[in-house]
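Please fill in the sequence for the structure shown.

STRUCTURE ENCODING:
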């Protein structure tokens, strides 16, 4: 279904997928209303928090390599246009134990698309990064065109750009789980009783998509609890800031990643494996003692100088994962004017600008859904497990 420029579009969710979709639609001439229950980049959202890694290494999943490279280009353009710092290109340092097949597959995919993942001699890694314990690391790779994004700041910036460029943003406006008949009549009800009408709708509601569409999405989106820790670094010591250390990802045994210290923030460390299922609305967000102890033990091993570093703060965020860790970007199976965008699965934030382009093209009738992201793929039993994010 193709719709004309100037059509009314409501985008529900001002995170990475929703915010960028709204901005792209505004720039293509649509009359956009963006709403979010707690605001862009809020603590409950999958796009909340201070920072997110941006990298294009995805093994054999080259679709995400392409999306990440496109997104990086768009992030750079947006920074220049808005005169804001949202991206730090520190590179990403990849560390492997016995098996580096993921790196080899990633290097091949990147090379085919004009990117690069370069192997590094271990002795060179030791020279450049003496703050790392390299004993159990067998292979090292450096992804130069990569780094991290200021996530909350970016979400707020994009929502402001939507308004500045002609869209409407409803601050803290929560949608009632939509009834089929209301959507069929192109109407959306808010918790305060207001009714909004539009020609098309995009629901980019992260971990809440299953609740909003229980029969269409339901358990295909699983919110999981993810703890993130910020440890204090020594004063006047740049070895643990982005001046001397890239973003790093350790795949030697577990899947631990980190972002070097910057400004008032500490040294960020997190376990990338999916945690226990959580309620994104009502669950408390206090770090666990076991999680803190595990990260302290990891730091003592991999970054010995931080063995006794103080814990400055911790966040409990969530992944909103699909069963196969692929995105869900598709039309509602019974409503041609309703679109669903989610399933970021812990790796989607960085691709917000590229996903925004994709969803805007779908809404405006300029493209067809990618079968890899369609709901119909779940008719067959999907792969499961954290490892699908990397393979």
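FILLED IN BY: designer on duty
SEQUENCE:
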């Amino acid at each position: 279904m193709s719709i004309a420029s100037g059509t009314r579009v409501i985008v529900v969710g001002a995170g990475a997928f929703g915010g960028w979709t709204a901005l792209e639609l505004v720039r293509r001439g649509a009359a956009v209303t963006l709403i979010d229950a707690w605001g862009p980049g809020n603590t409950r959202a999958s796009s909340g928090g201070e920072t997110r890694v941006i990298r294009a290494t995805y093994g054999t999943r080259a679709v995400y390599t392409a999306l990440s490279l496109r997104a990086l280009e768009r992030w750079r353009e947006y920074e220049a246009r808005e005169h804001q710092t949202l991206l730090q290109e520190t590179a990403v340092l990849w560390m492997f134990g016995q098996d580096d097949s993921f790196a080899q597959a990633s290097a091949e995919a990147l090379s085919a698309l004009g990117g690069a993942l370069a192997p590094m001699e271990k002795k060179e890694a030791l020279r450049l990064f003496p703050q790392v314990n390299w004993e159990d690391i067998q292979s090292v790779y450096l992804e130069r065109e990569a780094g991290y994004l200021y996530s909350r700041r970016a979400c707020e910036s994009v929502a402001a750009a939507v308004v500045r460029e002609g869209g409407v943003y409803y601050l803290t406006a929560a949608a009632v789980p939509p009834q089929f008949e209301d959507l069929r009549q192109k109407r959306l009800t808010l918790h305060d009783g207001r009714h909004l009408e539009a020609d098309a709708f995009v629901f980019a509601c992260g971990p809440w998509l299953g609740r909003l569409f229980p029969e269409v999405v339901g358990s295909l989106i699983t919110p999981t609890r993810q703890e993130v820790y910020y440890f204090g670094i020594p004063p006047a010591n740049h070895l643990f800031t982005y001046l001397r250390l890239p973003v790093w990802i350790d795949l030697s045994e577990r899947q631990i990643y980190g972002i070097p210290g910057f400004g008032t923030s500490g040294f960020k460390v997190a376990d990338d494996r999916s945690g226990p299922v959580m309620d994104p609305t009502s669950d408390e967000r206090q770090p666990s003692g076991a999680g803190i102890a595990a990260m302290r033990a990891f730091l003592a091993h991999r970054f010995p100088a931080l063995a006794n570093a103080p814990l400055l703060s911790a966040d409990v965020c969530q992944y909103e994962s699909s069963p196969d860790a692929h995105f869900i970007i598709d039309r509602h199976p019974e409503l041609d004017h309703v679109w669903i965008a989610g399933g970021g699965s812990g790796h989607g934030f960085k691709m917000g600008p590229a996903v925004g382009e994709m969803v805007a093209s779908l809404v405006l009738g300029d493209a067809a859904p990618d079968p890899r992201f369609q709901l119909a793929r779940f008719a067959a039993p999907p792969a499961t497990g954290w490892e699908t994010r990397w393979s």
